[in-house]
Amino acid sequence: MFKDREDAALQLAKRLKTRRLERPLVLAIPRGGVVVGAVLARELGAELDVVLARKLRAPYQPELAIGAVSEDGEVHLGAFARQIPGVTDEYLHRERDYQLAELARRRALFRDARPEADAAGRTVIVTDDGVATGSTMLAALHVLQARAPREVIVAIPVAPPDMVTQLGRQCHHVECLLAPPYFGAVGAFYRDFEQVEDSEAVRLLREHYAADRRA
């Protein structure tokens, strides 16, 4: 159990400090992941940016992710997605278009805070406040492939064991603090899991970018 996102991030940073990191860049998945990413960037002396992907919601169950869509429009569906009632091609097209519009909004919002960081040849640490189905993280890793990083590390406080294994096939290393066999919601592993607003994520991103430019 973590006190809050900052507590989880400090524990992750302690683990990551034992690794050799080449010009580290932390890419956080908004919005909760930006709080984790900001602490990691501070503790590791890394640059902070965001990577954008959105979960695809199940019909009638918006909290259930059936997949995700990346910035380039590619859809990543979970293995079980087609078994969910109401998941048709028509539904998926509508949901994809809706989430792409939200990605465009977020891109404009976050790119006003800082331009996209160059990931080429660097150690890139992709983070969030936790992973459940893994769809959004997998979509984020897909976005990153085209940016030629030297090494990709997924750093997450908590995830199901099978998802840790799956993510490990898509990156160089997974740093996960908790992998409980019985997994519910990510928030169940935090005492404080308040929703992070866009304004908070933008503030953290802007502050770190300003600090990086002064350094």
- What is the CATH topology classification name? Rossmann fold
How many separate structural domains? Answer: 1
The average pLDDT value, as a whole number, equals 93
Structural class: alpha/beta
Please outline the helices and strands.
Layout: H1 5-16, E1 25-28, H2 32-44, E2 47-50, E3 53-58, E4 61-70, E5 75-77, H3 89-113, E6 123-127, H4 135-145, E7 151-158, H5 161-168, E8 173-178, H6 198-214
Parallel strand pairs: 1-2, 1-6, 6-7, 7-8
Antiparallel strand pairs: 3-4, 4-5
Structure, explained:
By secondary structure, the chain is an alpha/beta fold. Helix content is 40%, strand content 21%. It has a single domain (5-214), classed as Rossmann fold (3-Layer(aba) Sandwich), CATH 3.40.50.2020. Helix 4 links the parallel strand 6 and strand 7. Helix 1 runs parallel beside helix 2 (32-44). The chain is globular, with a radius of gyration of 16 Å. It starts with a helix and ends with a helix.
Descriptive tags:
about 220 residues, 5-stranded parallel beta sheet, alpha/beta
What's the short story on this structure?
This protein has helices spanning 5-16, 32-44, 89-113, 135-145, 161-168, 198-214; strands at residues 25-28, 47-50, 53-58, 61-70, 75-77, 123-127, 151-158, 173-178.
